[in-house]
Structure formats: C-alpha cells, structure tokens
Amino acid sequence: MKILLLGEYSNVHSTLARGLRASGEQVCVASDGDGWKNYPRDIDLSREGKGRAAFMVSLLKALPSMKGYDVVQLINPMFLELKAEHIEPVYRYLRRHNGKIVLGAFGMDHYWVSVNSEIRPLRYSDFNFGDRPRTDPEAEIYRKEWTGTPKERLNRLIASDCDGIVAGLYEYWATYREVTVSGTDGRPVRDKMTYIPFPIVMPRNPVTTMSGDKFRLFAGISRGRSAYKGTDIMLEAAREVLRAYPDRMELRIAEGVPFSEYTRLMEGSDAILDQLYSYTPSMNSLLAMSKGIIDIGGGEPENYRILGEEELRPIVNVLPSKESVRAEIERLVLNPDIIPDLKRQSVEYVRRHHDYMKVARQYMDFYRSL
C-alpha cells in the first residue's frame, strides 16, 4: 500500500512510518518536523524564514509528489503552517488525487475544544474541571481560535468528508464519541473513528534499576505551553519536594530543545513529569517509559481499560493539583524500593501496547477496512 503521512505531532508520523515501512508498505512523511523539535521527514514543509508567498511557492512545488496514494493521513485539520482558509483548497486537492483520507484526532482541534467546554465527558481536561470550564488565558485563546472561525469550519469539513478518523489517546476517542453530526456519506462522524495507540520504537537496553543514590526527576517544557499543559504546577510541586529532600532528589529540566537533545537530557532519569490534565501518557511519556523511566502524569482507569490492560499499573497517576503531584513525587523519593518494579512495568507496558510494529499492523488493518 502507498501511504502519505501529512503533518507531525511529537514524532507520531515519523515513528509510524518506520513501522509501516518495516512491514513492506511504501510510505512518505511530509511535514514541518513539528517546528523546533525537527523530527525526520521525507518532504520538508517547514515555513521557517519564509513569508506566505514563498511558502506557497514551495508548497505548490511539493503538491505533485502528494498524488496517487492509497491513503493520506492528516495529523490534524491544521496540517500545514497556513491559515485554515488556505488549507481547505489543499485538502480538496488531496481528496481529488488520492484514495482514502484519514484524519488524526491527536491534539488540539474544534471538537476537542467544544466538546470538553460544553458537554464535558471527561472529569477533567484541558478545558474543564468537572462541570466547571477552565478560564485561564491559554484555554480561552484556544476557544477563540477554534470556535466560530475558519479553523472550526475546516475541522467540520474534513471530519465530515474523510473516510476514517484515528484517535491516539483515550481522551480524544472519548471526545469524538460525542460528535453526533453526520458526514457527507451519511454516517455519523463518530462511527468513522477508531482508537489506535501511539507508536514507540523500543530501545535495546532499557534501565529498570535506580539511577543512583538520589531520585532523578526530569521535566520537559514546550515553548509557550507550560501553563496550558500544567507543567508550571508540576514543577512548582517538584521544587517543593526538592527543597524538602535536597539530599535524596535531583531535578533536571529541558526547555525548547530539539528532539535529539531532549532524549539525551532524559537519559538516566528515574521519572518524568508530563501533562497534568491528561488521562493517558503522551508520546514523550511513552518514550520515557520505554527506557524504564516512570511517568508521573495521566494514568486513569479509562486508559488501562481501552487497552485491555488488567495487570500492569506503571503510571503514577496524579489529579490536576499541586498537592496531588507533590504527594506522589514525595512517595517515590521516600520509597525508592518501589521504583525498580514501576520501571520494569513501564517497559513492559510500552512493549505490550505501543511497540511500533504492532501499532503499524493495527493501522494497516484500519486502512484496509476503509
């Protein structure tokens, strides 16, 4: 099968491409590398240093190489660094010149914003705490961007018109399950959707022992998204524990660095802080877990349930509060004997559910079903 993976979030498409190619499929990744993270791609769609006119010229030159695919998978409705009204004609071009179109439910989009702001199927999310909407500036910015705007119209168009939708986390699956509008083929949008875990390439020698005499905690900060993802609260909790136990803990922080540097800085850690408002581990958390690094973040029961996991519980689940994060970090600092088992479970969890070859087979099954 000939497959085009268009756009990038946190190395999802680049990693999936490796699994699909190893399975014998013909795959092309076209993306901007997810900006400063600079993930690998075959067609570079980066806009860095280019005005709109210059970028449009480079895009027009690239479009002929995006024809004739059996499947085109879009990372998001905003799969290019363009305004939504300029992406729509590109989508229609892709629709005319290729076979099936698959939309990724992997991150920020109109339904993620609107469903969690209005219907609120999750106990907490980027946009709600129970029945109470989040009103911090970052949440309000995203509401304005994706409500009553060209971005909303583009998302609705693609979700209605595409052949399939893949959710990469439980939260996105639960959100799209609430979308009741019908698509252009008459099917409800939610009936086009499937859940497939994110893909991870397993390292050869994960470390499942304590890194040293001190508990080593790692945090990665995305530029401009620290408050939105709750990293600011998690770091505040971590620094409080560090002040209380300076002889038993180390804290390492990476901010706005390329992927290769991020992974280097992560090495040798015992645990990672990631995504306060999540039910599930993200790509960064899963990568860490595959290396034997414990994830302090999202590990709600729904996450294990959708995977069918009844044995392993490697994720140190925290509620969206500083007190919860602090308590869990302190528990690990004061009980180093539990760390090796959590590390071992972390590696096994990723191996069972996120190995890139297994995930690639799940994608191929979904593509063939279309």
Explain what you see.
- 43% of the residues lie in helices and 15% in strands.
- By secondary structure, it is α/β, with parallel strands linked by helices.
- It folds into 2 domains: 2-199 and 356-369, Rossmann fold (3-Layer(aba) Sandwich); 215-353, Rossmann fold (3-Layer(aba) Sandwich), CATH 3.40.50.
- Strands 3-2-1-4-5-8-9 form a 7-stranded parallel β-sheet, sandwiched between helices.
- Strand 6 (128-129) and strand 7 form a beta hairpin.
- Helix 3 packs parallel to helix 6 (150-161) and helix 9 packs across helix 13 (322-334).
Radius of gyration: 20 Å
| Count of discrete alpha- or pi-helical segments spanning 4 or more residues | 15
Mean pLDDT: 94
CATH class of the largest domain: Alpha Beta
Secondary structure class reads alpha/beta
Structural domains: how many: 2
User: Major beta sheet, specifics?
Assistant: 7 strands, parallel
Which fold name is given in CATH as the topology of the largest domain?
Answer: Rossmann fold
Secondary-structure element series? EHEEHEHEHEEHHEHEEHHEHEHEHEHHH
* Gap from first CA to last CA: 13 Å
Number of strands: 14
In CATH, the architecture of the largest domain is 3-Layer(aba) Sandwich
Proportion in β-strands: 15-25%
- Any idea what the shape is? globular
Poorly predicted segments: none
The helicity comes to 40-55%
Please give the order of strands in the largest beta sheet.
3-2-1-4-5-8-9
